[in-house]
Amino acid sequence: MLLQAPFDVVLTILEFLSPKDLISLSLCNKAYYSAIREHGWKHFFDLQKWNLTFPPPNTQANDWHQLVEFGVTVQKNWAKKQFSTEVISSQRQAFLPVIRFDSDKLVCGLGNSLNFFGPAQRNTSPKFYKQKSFIAHNGDITDISLCLDPKELFTCSTDGLIKRWFLNLPVTIQMPLSQTYKGHTTAVHSIYQFVYDPSTLFSVSVDGKLFVWNTHTAELCHDVQVPGIPRAMCGLTNGLIAVGNKSSEHLTLYKVTPSELVRVNSFKGHKSTVYALQSTNLLPHTFLSGCYDSVTRLFDLRTNSCVASFQDIFDTNPVFSVDYDHYRVVAGSSMHGVVQLWDLRYSQNADHYPGKLKKGAVEDGWSIFLGKTQRSPVYSLQLSHSKIVAALADQTWMLDFATASEPRSPSLESSRQYNFHRSRYRSNESWRTRPSRNEGALYFMHQKWNNLYETF
Questions:
Q1: Other Cβ atoms within 10 Å of 355 Cβ, number
Q2: 135, 137, 132: which is closest to 160 by C-alpha?
């Protein structure tokens, strides 16, 4: 009866079925089994909008059943707050690192050098292995932009230079070819490239200049003076560029045209300097900002307003790094190696179906404490559906929600030594010792201390 209906009607009905329903329906007869196998699992996967940058190992691209099984498992681990931890790299000297990853590689800028890590082909530890590293700039690297072509990337540095690196060389050759962009007189803080326009690159510098470059010729097309000292930059939908700065405006928008950058009215809603900006194609017309006032804000470009603000009420430190996807928000604090997390949506009875976006003040998140360098900021982080990669001053961590293990929760005595205030963290000696891989992170809920211990 169901298969006799028009195909678009069948797909509409499949939208309301959970994975258990799809499995039960596929066991009815061969016709249902073929329909679910060819269309049901793929349709369900597309509706979830999971950012599977790292799919499960040894999985074919069109094995939709296994991809759905992997995605649902990760969702359950997020809900249970179960994850495993791994230190990807450690260094004796403290840096201000920056990280970016895609499905092929993880790139980490440490000082003036670029370090490349490749994902393991099997579900083993370590999950990343170092491929190569080389000195890329004369100053510290401040930002990395991965290109649509996996064999290219851009870097900028405190030496005032921007470089385009061509990675399509044999692994045995340590130093790849590069193209240099000269024009800034001081440190370049941020760079950005739209996916649909690989011929254009945007950069902002401490000198207060926003430059537009032609990536084919490395020539400067045009520039504009931005207010204050720029701190971060991000591309938005409809050809907009957002610049977070240290000024009375805090955030300024520019419309990209073929001949110039047109300034749009300043975006209201920020009360302090914007240190981090992020946007995602999974939620178009939105962007996320991290600020000095310890608040992470979600904005909607269609209404020109802040629709939700995320904050750990026990942490008053500035937010240094942010990222988000269709389901959750993560932010890196400026002290104690803290990664803050919130659910972006209200939960539903069926956990496979995303709920509505939260609005207003959101304070029901939780925080993860990384490593032994408790005073280090989380300088850079990136989120995928199953992993969070966070860079501290001397360590780069990966939190893996695909391979879950119960994280350590604080005891009553160690919580008391925390002084009931997260911005004045004090720990006992056992917390400062380096934890094992499966005990590398502690987490707290963002709620009143009287109810804290009921969650563990």
A1: 15
A2: 137
Q: Please name the residues in contact with 249: beta carbons below 8 A apart, sequence gap of 6 or more.
A: 227, 228, 266
The token pair at 383 is 């989120």
Residues 175, 160, 95, 407: is their CA dihedral positive or negative?
negative
* Closest alpha carbon to 202 in 277, 306, 125, 95: 277
Give which of 364, 369, 371, 373 is closest to 345, Cα–Cα.
Answer: 364
Q: Identity (one letter) of the amino acid at 6?
A: P
- Distance of alpha carbon 230 from alpha carbon 142, whole angstroms: 13
pLDDT tens by residue, the chain, 456 residues: 666 777 677 777 877 788 888 888 888 888 888 888 888 898 888 888 898 888 887 777 778 889 999 999 999 899 888 998 889 988 877 788 999 999 889 999 999 999 999 887 665 555 788 888 899 999 999 999 999 888 899 999 999 999 999 987 665 556 778 899 999 999 999 999 998 899 999 999 998 999 999 999 999 999 999 988 898 999 998 889 999 988 888 899 999 888 888 998 767 778 888 999 999 999 999 999 999 999 999 999 988 889 999 998 888 899 999 999 999 999 999 888 899 999 998 876 544 556 788 888 888 899 998 865 567 899 999 999 999 999 998 889 999 999 876 554 444 333 333 333 333 333 333 333 333 333 455 666 665 433 333 332
How far apart CA 324 and CA 2 sit, in angstroms, is 38
In a 3-state reduction of DSSP, which class is residue 453? helix
The structure's pTM equals: 0.85
**What are the structure tokens assigned to 104, written together?**
């092929």
Work out whether the CA dihedral 313, 314, 318, 323 comes out positive or negative: negative
Task: Report the amino acid identity of residue 284.
Answer: P
Q: Under a CB-based contact definition with an 8 Å cutoff, are residues 296 and 282 in contact?
A: no
Q: How far apart are CA 135 and CA 137, in angstroms?
A: 6
Q: For 202, what's the count of Cα atoms within 13 Å in the CB-facing half-sphere?
A: 24
